[in-house]
Amino acid sequence: MSRQPPLVNAVYYPSWRVYKDIPPSSLQLHKISTIYYAFAIPQENGSLGFLDEYADAQIPVDAELGCLNALARVKRDNPHLKTVLSIGGGTGSRAFPVLAASEHARAAFAQAAARWVQQYSFDGVDVDWEHPRTPAEGRHYVALLHACRATLPAPQFLLTTALPCDPSVLRMLDLRAVGSIVDHINLMCYDFTGPWSSVAGHHAPLFASTEEGTSSQQGLRLLLAHVPPHRIILGIPAYARIFPGATAEGDVYEQEDGGDEDDEDKEELEIDYRDVPPEWKAADVLRVDHGRAAAWAIVPRPGKKGRSDHARNTSFVTMDVPATVRIKAGFVRATALGGLFYWTGAGDAERYEDSLVAAGFDALHGM
User: Fold this and answer.
1) Of 89, 286, 296, 328, which sits 20 to 30 A from 318 (CA to CA)?
2) Domain, as residue range, for 131
3) pTM to 2 decimals?
């Protein structure tokens, strides 16, 4: 009987967090197996560029110049860590449809990725194309993965990809082929609700309350029909979403009308987990649905100029907390998935007792 690989507890490190004094060395390194560096940006000809050249390669950080070199240093100082270059992302995927459609550009992309891997001591590459939207793009996506694997062969190098839970996207792909090429599929099990939603709701539940409800299960069922479970990594959000004026799940909330993003009176709709006020996580405020692996709080809204008299003075806050992460880690173990990842490690709480990353690692390893 073949032995399953060790469970993954991975984090994404976004280079822009260095501007908040959160360098790679500040992560919960002893509780992490893999760090994904976000992001390199693909070009239509297959070359790669910096997302932010100053943050990536120039800013003094951790006794190095640039976050790329700082991460390479972290890896040297922590031999248990794997590091992976993530390419694309939500705002960096524009070139993928054109480059993936060209055999020449696909080969150039794979070669460029290999050069970055060598230069910055990465263990592999993560293709984060968000997202193939047609059957043709789905075929080109698989061809791009093939080109990367040919240039970065297993088991010497890791090749991973990030995919959403949305079945309409997953059905554009030959999932069996994807699962045969990559080491891991990082399933983005979050953002099921947000400012685009008509009502307040949980943004990262493992299970839905109704058959029609949105949850991680929708994507997991589809993947598990085609992909070995140990290749699937379950995503955890290290940030909270806020629905102003809502008093419960399913409640209509007060949507912002756009306006000036620098407006001091504009309410936050998303915050890093590390910045969630302690009072929102207090025992008499925080609620955890253990059946769905979802947590929420109903909290007072901050004062806001011009708020109408009929406006409701609470907000519905949806987030993962250590208790829900432990439930999800238990699910990973029970279903033989490959582990957990967190978007982002830099958004996690600093204290071990509050850390999502630490809670996940300990639960994955029976601690």
Assistant:
1) 89
2) 8-238+320-364
3) 0.94
